[in-house]
Design a protein that fits this description.
Aldehyde Dehydrogenase, Chain A, domain 1; 498 residues; 41% helix; Aldehyde Dehydrogenase, Chain A, domain 2; alpha/beta; six-stranded mixed beta sheet; binds nicotinamide-adenine-dinucleotide
Amino acid sequence: MCRDASLECGACKCLLTIEPMTQLDLHRVFDLQYQASRAQVDVPLLVRRERLLRMQKLLDEHGPVLAAAVQADFGMRSPRLTEMVELFVLRNLLKHTLRHLARWSGRQRVRTPLMLMPGRGWIERQPLGVVGVISPWNYPVQLALGPAITALAAGNRVMLKPSELTPHTSAQLAALVGQFFAPEEFAVIEGDVSIATQFSGLHFDHLLFTGSTAVGRRVAQAAAAHLTPTTLELGGKSPCIISTDCDLKEAALKIAHGKLVNAGQTCIAPDYVLLPRGQEAEFAEAFRTAARRLFPRFAGNPDYAAILTKRHLARLRQMLRQAQGMGAHVEWMEDGGAGQESADTAWGDAVERQMAPALVFNATSQMQLMQEEIFGPILPVISYDRLDDVVSAINAGPRPLALYWFGRDEKVRDAVLSRTISGGVTVNDTLLHFAHENLPFGGVGDSGWGAYHSEQGFARLSHQKAVFVQSRWSGASMLYPPYGARFDRIMELMRRWL
Ligand code: NAD
């Protein structure tokens, strides 16, 4: 990794001069932010807005640098994809947040019950203080800055620990955030797992973690030591149910897109398909056609992302080997040899990490690929006879982050949605509930807890303080001791009001 200032990064031409923060820096930055958050509890709207505008400027001026850093980390990932799924999503979040900031951060009026009238109540949304954000590698800009934007909007100080597996992006984030924000406002702490462990042990006012379920468990344990509330955005196996009345070609195209964008390295990618028995050949053909339409070739195609590292690729290949060994039928979306011509180009070993997609039939629950989140371009297709079996199978496993339903009959759709629990749902497409700014995004059970995005995300990163203002005309003192006949009469009246 080109951390030495005398080295220029070959892929993105950046000079990475930022040294990783030491343990000392971690605690120093935390102390700075903690003191600042206690010294200025009320963070005026103007200050919050100005911080968001600075973030907007950072993205406007340095979006291409960030996209190049992501490309350098993956070896092969289209800057256009990064523009859409990282930078555009962030710009949209910023615009939405700026538009609603005044209303979200203002007093939230509530109705006052008759017995407390003529007093009145409201909810005061206040900054929590210092919010920690730990982010993963798969969408390394959006999943780092998205939670930070909401936390800043809510008036918090933010410390971000991005993934050590995307060092170019993390270094650029550290440099740019350092350039646009004072360390007591927003700071990036780079470092490996040991720094991440120390980071999650800080006495944050809230910790938002995005990553795997296994690490999420450790983060929740570390946060519990300080009673730090957490939002856990985790992973899991998101099922994609195909109904008998669905247009298979259209569904296959949308599933192929949801699965193959970023080569399946998406937390809400459809993990496996549940297909009415008998439609296997038709689905395989439709998926192959759809995949070919999206990516005429895989190896050497700059639109098709590489698997992040050889280690991640080896895990995916091992899963397929095991499934084949245990009797599954694997259908590769073969490459047509087009990758050969670019194997010796500037992409280096990234071409070798561009894994062609594979469909897997006859997968069983004993196979690793049906036990773990796949996180790659492998799509098991499980045949079913009755929809009830599908619902039971989903309910028997950990609660998924996303669920997809393809079909026309709204009654059947609603029956499936009401009988299953998942973090979110997209009907007749994939991924898109994430992009809807008025919907909260989060998991449930093993796929996480708490949600961000939308006003609910803003509320989660705020303290919602209940305020009741007593009126001078209040009759509450009539219920004070000493208790007697007057008390009984008033209580009787109040019981009738209920
Ligand atoms: P990961 O859990 O390995 O790492 C995530 C982050 O946690 C990294 O920054 C890492 O440095 C840090 N970390 C590692 N060990 C830690 C520890 N002991 N204490 C504190 N922090 C620690 O996840 P990953 O491999 O980077 O990302 C892939 C996973 O993230 C997948 O499971 C995917 O589904 C999930 N994910 C979820 C969402 C979502 O929104 N729900 C989004 C993207 C990815």
